[in-house]
Write a structure and sequence with these properties.
2 domains, Immunoglobulin-like, 2 helices
Length: about 160
């Protein structure tokens, strides 16, 4: 009996797909709103990095400069050095706790090096085969730091190769 009445009343069958589509659209809109709120709540922390020292040709230099002794303005190739980079959480009061497990890369001047920070936030990175072009007094190298849960840190002029 119910079966026959249902087959005779076509409004139930014809309106059902439209109702499902409306429910689906509303559900997707609500889900998108919830995801947006979750992303705003779970923002990443900020971090900062600094080059503490450079070791080049057996000499240790404090700071972020690699002094290359060249005469005149010729191109200097094969510049290889080790940089000691500290990575810290950035708080409103300045650098905070060290960040371990962050990936640090240094690139520029045709050279590249990368490493990972240890428990004290230190990454020791050897950068190989940099070039100081002729007629250039300095070359900037970029420091990039990434870690899950933190915003990416980039310093376009993190290290300088300087002609002396």
């Amino acid at each position: 009996m119910f079966k026959n009445r249902w087959l005779k009343d076509r409004r139930g069958i014809e309106g059902l797909p439209m109702r499902l589509i409306i429910i689906l659209v509303v559900a997707i809109a609500v889900l998108a709103a919830i995801m947006a709120i979750i992303n705003m709540i779970g923002t990443n922390k900020n971090m900062t990095a600094e080059c503490a020292k450079i070791v080049y040709n057996g000499e240790t230099y404090d700071g972020f400069q690699v002094p290359v002794d060249t005469t005149g303005s010729e191109e200097k190739t094969g510049i290889t050095f080790t940089a000691y980079i500290y990575v810290y959480e950035l708080t409103k009061d300045g650098p905070g706790d060290p960040i371990s497990g962050a990936k640090v890369s240094i690139s520029g001047g045709n050279g590249f090096g990368s490493g990972t920070t240890d428990g004290s936030g230190l990454a020791t990175i050897t950068v190989s085969n940099c070039i100081l072009p002729e007629n250039a007094d300095e070359v900037d190298l970029k420091i990039e730091v990434t870690k899950s849960g933190y915003n990416k840190f980039v310093d376009e002029e993190g290290i300088k190769i300087v002609r002396i």
